[in-house]
Amino acid sequence: MTSKRFKKLPEKTFDLPAETLDKLLPLVKKNCTTKFDESIDLSLQINNKQKKNEISIRTVVNLPGGSGKKIKVAVVCEETKTNDAKSAGADIVGGDELIEKIKSGEMNFEKLICTPSMMIKLSKLGKVLGPKGLMPNPKLGSVTDDLKTAVSDAKSGQAEIRNDKDGNIGVSIGKKSFTDDKLLKNFNAIIDTLEKEKSNNVVKGDLVKSVFLTSTMGVSYKLKLGKNI
Fold it and tell me: For the chain, which has fewer Cβ within 10 Å, the N-terminal or C-terminal residue?
């Protein structure tokens, strides 16, 4: 059943011509009529079905304007690195005892970081961590000895870019309360990351087929990319 609030939103925005982000942000923000601070989100479809290979993107991008989310970070490390993790702002820090808690299903965190030497033990919990997307990954910077940088990046604002089997990517560029300048900086950081992914993969034609901009409880608009990716 469609709510009264949603019925008041513009109709058929999906059919409008594509516009640049700076022109669409005021429209999307105007449609944020809920009482909470809605996320401003991108929905991208990439050309992942290639003749010689299938493109699979999984990476992270540090958002210069922040994410607007409070991320609870857990770190599995040796006792000698505990202070580094805590001083960087980690919410939960531990070694073997933390691994046992995770094994029993106690996972009250959104991001898990691990040192390489402890990853050997943690890797056995793939069936527990994998389905929740919490398994640390060297490619994503979450398996590292540089805990200060990893924790700081995770807390300050980091987004994961990952496509599903159909080539869809969903990622937030911030909140309605963000200034347009912050949202634009976050958007450009994501596009720059996708440009690098295109150069790292053999892509026939454009990597990105289409992009839409929306808010958590709003309607979608076609987004025009200024860069050819």
Answer: N
